[in-house]
Amino acid sequence: MSTEQTSPRDAGFTPTGTIASATDRRRVVFATVVGTTVEWYDFFIYASAAGLVFGQLFFAPAGEGFAQILSFITVGISFLFRPLGAFLAGHLGDKYGRRLVLMLTLILMGVATTLVGLLPTYAAIGVAAPILLIFLRILQGISAGGEWGGAVLMAVEHAPKKRRGIFGASPQIGVPLGLLLASGIMALMAVIAPGDAFLEWGWRVPFLFSVVLILIGYYVRRRVEESPVFLEIAERKEKTRMPIVQLFRKHTLLVIIAALVFAGNNAIGYMTTGGFVQRYATDPGGSLQMDPAPVLWAVTGSAVTWLISTAVAGWLSDKIGRRTTYIIGWILQLVGVITLFPLVNTGNVWLLFTGLAILTIGLGFTYGPQAALYAELFPASIRFSGVSISYAIGAILGGAFAPTIAQALVQATGSTESVTWYLAGMTVIGLIATLLLRDRSGIPLGPEHEAEQAASPIYGLSRA
Prior knowledge:
The protein is 75% helix and 0% strand. It has 464 residues and is an all-alpha fold. It has a single domain (24-221, 238-454), classed as MFS general substrate transporter like domains (Growth Hormone, Chain: A).
């Protein structure tokens, strides 16, 4: 069956046969951008605080060096629970709809983030403080594991066939927007409450601000209609009884390869979103000892370049295909990896920003097309499970412990050269995984094309 054939859904029709309006589609794009921005703001606020203050406030008895490693480990621990969030969200999303999952994950993330801002430190309640901190980070991980799949499917499944890349980039740009917002508010608080004041109370304000953002995100998301692909599945009564079982019975290798594609991007992205560069540049015992405020502003500026390149890559993937866009992205990302630390190690904040800006161009090109790529890999009946679990596994293999690994490498070798080799290796893994996949840009997404969607997109395996 040719991928050029289109269903009413692919031509822009809803299951009832009416044409989906441009207003409906704009509302979906706006809702996915706002919702994912709020989710990732919450997630990145934690990572930023882990790099700047959590080591001192929650893990100080472990000693200065090991306390920071423990702080970064708590960033990674949440990733281990992303598959749980993905499994739960995938099951609920494939059986009860994408919209329900988006509401639940948003609320869970907001509650966990706000409670971190209210949490007493080790000096106040002892070992209970880091235990509670880890528990709340786990809740963030469960939420993040379920959020992404729902957001990207709402965007891509509402999109016209020839614009899935740019529609799919809408939840993707929520990540750099979340980083921009998180780093910007942290930088602002570092100016308003410098030094000891930041340690005492300044770091808490961004966490408490999450309450406002969650209310905004909830209001926006509740106005969005359910995915038309899911509505078609429901009308046809073709919902899979155990979508996760079906996914791993028929598509285990595809899940692994898709996860490795994301791992190659995620490990590099977590140099900033995981707080490593911020900590490395500002470490009082390190070689650079830069002021936190300008470093945070540099990270904020790099989030803008990441946002732009992500949107451009999504748009470009509609023109030249997902696979080709990714290949360009891996080359650009490798250039960014090689130039990052030589520029950071100058100790000049403008050169630090330049290094991050170059890096984020490649990051955007290996992230912008991901939503459309993933959605086009899996059959409609198990798509939520497929994209969510692939994403969660890729996050564990890539970003989960990337800041911890980088910190340990620097402490063991005394230089950042080993970190560069580590990041270059992850980039090459992502490239190889991409080369193993056929480009399925434009394949029909509706349930009436399930047989075509189920054909393996992996080179060397049968299409039928």
